[in-house]
Amino acid sequence: MLKKSLAVVLALVLVAGVLAGCGQQGSQQQGGQQSKAKEIAFTIGAEVPSLDPQKATDTYAILVGHHIFEGLVRVHDGQIQPGMAEKWEISEDKTTYTFHLRDAKWSDGKPVTAYDFEYAIKRLLDPNTASEYAFQGYYIVNGEEYNTKKITDPNQIGVKALDEKTLEIKLKVPVKYFESLLSFISFMPVRKDFVEQMGEKFAADADKLLYNGPFILKEWKHEQELVLEKNPNYWNKDAVKIDKVTIYVVNDANTAFQMFENGETDWEYIPAEMVEQMEKEGKAKYFYDGAEFYLQFNVKREGKPWLANENFQRAIGFAIDREALIKAVLKGVSDPATRYVLPQLAGLEKTFAEEYPYEFYSKNADVAKAKEYLEKAMKELKINDPSKLTFEYLTDDTQRAKLTAEFIQDQLKKNLGINMTVKQVPFKQRLELMTKMDYDVVFAGWGPDYNDPMTYLDLWVTGGGHNDTGWSNKQYDELIQFAKTTTDFKKRADAMFEAEKLLLEKGPIIPIYFRKRAWVCNDRINGLVTDFIGATFDFVYADVQE
């Protein structure tokens, strides 16, 4: 039973990782000391909002966190590998996991213990932490009950350090992707004495964190750059070939690409207008990074009841020509999102999309259908003039975000007569406004944290940590709850499919596209892995050939 359980998990995650190194894969085995310092550099599009493992929510924090922290397990190139735990057992009923930790150290030289993991997981679930990712721990016995204050004793949570090297986690029901989930940043360990010593300053700067991963954060110049260095205390340090990593914060895609052209960085996304040229030169590479982008409606916005109207939302969804947007703004690099769940995510035997084919929206605008929905909405709202159905569209302050906004703005005006204004703000501010629900409609995105449709679907339950829409639907909540508690995997998948259809028919989410990335990479880089689960780039075992 144990071997079969692990095999199922491995099968689920094997499709996730893609070796995208620019040369051959670097060795993951232990080797000798490097005679010359090996350095790499790349850019990210915005400041990392937070590196507190239990509070981090964004793609940049997940990327950096994957390299400076390590959980009980590590997912590399789609495969589950031992991390801080060198081995573990799973009970016959697949609800009790017993992890045995290896000899490992924090960056200050003190040992990493099972108590650090117990503290971190309970901190994730502590309502005072106010973690948006607390729901990831709801599979654990009494995890949800503690987070929602139905119980107040943290000792009732199903996670316990049996001794310094042994951690026991008890689940409510079997969760086939649980090992994969444990590699996510929310489950990274933190040390109680250090967190309490730092107080509110914890994770605010490089010296306000402790590290147990392959790298340490040596320097953090906010809004400018992050510098990572190889962690001399990492248990598998000899397998890590890179000595230094510089991550520049650059929010302009053209500037970032020019840095690559100038030899300042080792890989970079290709700006839309440069894709064709790079393709002709044979330099363009492609991968799906797992991100889905969608319009998200604030259904509680005062003074704008149409934002909560299901027919108004569907009118917007059918009025947008997704294929034309991708061609005009993204230069053909991405796929129209005609449904909500990412097509690559695992189903029972094949992908979820193969087992449950579905298309709610068309790739092109369906203006006739959009107008039908708009007429219904206006009748319900008792509004005769569509120009009165105004709203502000919140988005990031990048050129691509600007062009996307302008395209959608034009589509809605031309096809429905709706006036949309645009508000551009920095990435971090956009996240803050979403959390405060201080927006009308936002162009938002989500990437999968683990290889299962639930990573998208449980976002929209009533009161969910990431449900910044105000939307609540009892039937949807019941479907998700059933999917999370049933032990029948087929019935679980059926329930998730019903939830997806319900979300598209009645929910505040309008999917626009599934992002495909065009990028270039220096030929000297070996063993770099791209992934649509978790960290987009994994350079733990990368190497450089000078």
From TrEMBL:
Record's GO cellular component, any one?
A: ATP-binding cassette (ABC) transporter complex
What Gene Ontology terms describe what this protein does at the molecular function level? peptide transmembrane transporter activity
Q: What is its main location?
A: other
Q: What is this protein called?
A: Oligopeptide transport system substrate-binding protein
Signal sequence bounds: 1-20
Protein localization: Cell envelope
Q: Outline the extent of the Solute-binding protein family domain.
A: 79-466
